[in-house]
Design a protein that fits this description.
By secondary structure, this protein is α/β, with parallel strands linked by helices. The protein is built from twelve helices and twelve strands. The strands form two sheets. Strands 6-7-8-3-9-10-12-11 form an eight-stranded mixed β-sheet, sandwiched between helices. Strands 2-1-4-5 form a four-stranded antiparallel β-sheet, with helices on one face. Helix 4 runs parallel beside helix 7, helix 5 packs across helix 7 and helix 7 runs parallel beside helix 8. The protein is globular, with a radius of gyration of 21 Å. Bound molecules: adenosine-5'-triphosphate and magnesium ion (MG). Keywords: ATP-binding, Cell membrane, Membrane, Nucleotide-binding, Transport.
């Protein structure tokens, strides 16, 4: 049986900052794939390269100093040959962005222009990519605002971003991202700036929308708790590399890599006494590019051994997750 087509297949992606001998590797052989209609979460602590991965796919890396130095980013809608986004030209990327691939950024204000009404900003995408008239685009913008749960959408469409609350702004940003019904939605910490109740609403909204449009979502978060609510599959990143990946159920219940185990141990649970201090992973994340050989996690790993100075093998466990760790090989 042929393997199911991946909508997005990232293969051995490498990104560096700077040039020549002073170049620092930031993404160091990142691979994963997102299947049609599924959600893949990328999780990891601050600075591990989650946003760099998203920006590479969108080809919105700050160049210079960052540049893609290797690998492929295959985007395959199933209606023609796959496109390699790593080498696609600007024109192709401009055509894809906002239409086939849309991104929701961490901070909603950066995605909204303060001087235009919200409805115009949603409509603009439809004028540009779908060739709608201004009038039709505005009508569709109102519909989209209604879809993402903004009350009184006709009035709201005429308002400016500063008249929206944080949660409403993020809904507006989601409406812009959804305007052209993209095959792939990249959401980079879409709820981090929101309070907990609003966060739950926005996550629910994203799940509903995914069902409705059958879109794929690449969901970026530093929160393992959110991964369990949102994703089918998860990729755990540390210092520019994937350390573990697999079905969410397998990774959450049987994390194989000590780093994933640490992230999961720091998820708060409802039945936990309020005064219990969560056990974060000890030590600080070293600067990206500062450890370039062996297991990058060895400086913080409670199980580090001499062999961890050598690059660890990728081992698939019986539960279906793959982890890059010498211990995992020993135990199977
Ligand atoms: N313009 C830049 N110049 C140099 N280094 C950079 C630049 N942008 C990002 N970096 C470095 O690249 C690394 C990865 O950054 P990235 O933004 O992908 O992290 P992240 O996983 O998204 O973190 P966060 O959870 O904080 O958003 C970081 O260590 C950061 O210091
Ligand atoms: Mg980020």
């Amino acid at each position: 049986m042929a393997a199911e087509r991946a909508l997005l297949d990232v293969q051995d992606l490498r990104v560096s900052f700077g040039e020549g001998p002073r170049a620092r590797p930031a993404l160091d052989g990142v691979s994963f794939s997102v299947r049609p209609g599924k959600t893949l979460a990328i999780v990891g602590e601050s600075g591990c390269g989650k946003s760099l991965t998203a920006l590479s796919i969108m080809r919105l890396l700050p160049t210079p100093p960052a540049r893609i130095t290797g690998g492929r980013i295959l985007f395959d809608r199933g209606d023609g040959p796959a496109l390699d986004l790593a080498s696609a030209d600007r024109r192709t990327m401009r055509r894809l962005r906002g239409k086939d691939i849309a991104m929701i950024f961490q901070e909603p204000m950066t995605a909204l222009d303060p001087v235009y009404p919200i409805g115009d900003q949603i409509g603009e995408v439809l004028v540009e990519h779908e060739g709608l008239s201004r009038k039709d685009a505005l009508a569709r913008a109102v519909e989209l605002l209604r879809l993402v749960g903004v009350p009184s959408p006709e009035e709201r469409a005429r308002q400016y971003p500063h008249e929206f609350s944080g949660g409403m702004r993020q809904r507006a940003v989601i409406a812009i991202a959804l305007a052209c019904e993209p095959a792939l939605l990249i959401a980079d910490e879409p709820t981090t700036a929101l309070d907990v109740t609003v966060q739950a609403q926005v996550l629910r909204l994203m799940r509903d929308i995914q069902q409705r449009f059958a879109s794929s979502i690449l969901f970026i978060t530093h929160d393992m708790g959110v991964v369990g609510q949102m994703a089918d599959e998860v990729v755990v990143m540390y210092l520019g590399q994937v350390v573990e990946e697999g079905p969410v159920s397998a990774v959450l219940s049987r994390p194989a890599h000590p780093y994933s185990q640490g992230l999961i141990a720091s998820i708060p649970t409802l039945d936990m006494p309020r005064d219990r201090v969560l056990q974060p992973i000890s030590g600080m994340v070293p600067p990206i590019g500062s450890i370039t050989t062996g297991c990058r996690f060895r400086t913080r790993c409670p199980h580090a051994m001499e062999i961890c100075r050598r690059d660890p093998p990728k081992v698939t466990t019986p539960a279906g997750n793959s982890a890059s760790c010498w211990l995992v090989e020993e135990s199977t």
